[in-house]
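Protocol step 4 of 6: structure prediction from sequence.
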Amino acid sequence: MIRTVKRKLAGNFIFIGLAQALNQFTPIAILPYLSRTVGMEAVGAIVFSQVLMNYLGTVVDYGFSISATRRVALHRGNAEELSNLFSSVLWVKGSIALAVLLLLAIASPLIPWPVLIVLLSFPLVAGKVLMPQWLFWGLEKNSTFVAASLLAKLFFIVFLFGFVKTADDAPWVNFALGSSDVLVGLLLTVHWIPKHLNVKIRIIEKRSLVQFTREGWTVFVSNVAASLYLNAGVLLLGQYVSGLNFGKYAVAERITTTPRLVSGLLLQAVYPHASRLAIESGKIAGEFISWFRKLIILLYMLCAGALFLLADFLTFLFTGVNDVLVSSYIQIFCILPLVVATGIPSYLELLIKGKNKNCMYVFLFGALLNISLNWLLLPLFHEKAAIAVAYLTEVIVAGGFVVMARRLNNHAMIPIYS
């Protein structure tokens, strides 16, 4: 049985990994091309807009990447329930996206970056509404979503290399990246999912939508708070440094963000299976969490060493020059993904045991601490403050998850579910 489980998880990880590599790493992978064509200052504006849209996308997602995935995994054989769930998620996400777009248009004059680049980046948010990755993850039909993601990114790559040649083309980078997801998402939502999964869009009663949003509230607050503390340093730093210096910092931060994205990928790959284990067998669930903890810590110890040793090579690869400042940022950031990874297994424990409020409190504290310290220190110490606050916040958040999980399990590292 253990071998079967590991093979299944390996398959989930590979396919979800490919999907995440296409969706999350594409903005990072194109940095070498952009730094050589549109220039570092334009790269800074593009990355700033991506970070802002990533945060707004988290608001629109409303935590469905976790809460809806779990419900799909539990009701995967019930087409009626899946249709109601699918429709509810679309209606809620669509409504939030429209509200976010309106607020963005109103607030855009206050953003200290080219307004055109920022506004044309909104399709990055719209794509999160129409690309139902949570449905495919919950059903563990990950290969289909990988194919859809690949198609979207092929559309984008053709546009990028065909039309983006100078700094004047910079506003269209994020627009094309998001629009490719919108196009493929429409094809999935309107045609493929109803035809092949028998999951259809329906009109949902207002009462049901309100109840649905209430159920996902704690996960939503947790995800927004987590996104806020992850992105606040970059967003606020853009107010205090030049476009060139921000571009250099942003490139290094994006490079070292890649392993942190992988930790989220690992969590998403194991979460549906861990949720079912927690219901079926407490002992096996505990053994699984223990195995997952050892795996993720070992992987990120190796990752930290690789980032430190390859900093100069990565700098030249992504910028086209041997920039000492970018290289030093990469080396300073190299331990941060390991810090994040230490808290992931405990976060998984809390989620599958229904302790969403505990997670919410940790994320909220981390967000408030991060924003407060950045607000106080960034005007004085700029990049140094952003780095220090990022480390302090991640240590506290990871430590908070570990402490809460231990308390809930009678101070044991392996959770007791039954």
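Step 5 (inspection) to follow. The radius of gyration is 21 Å.
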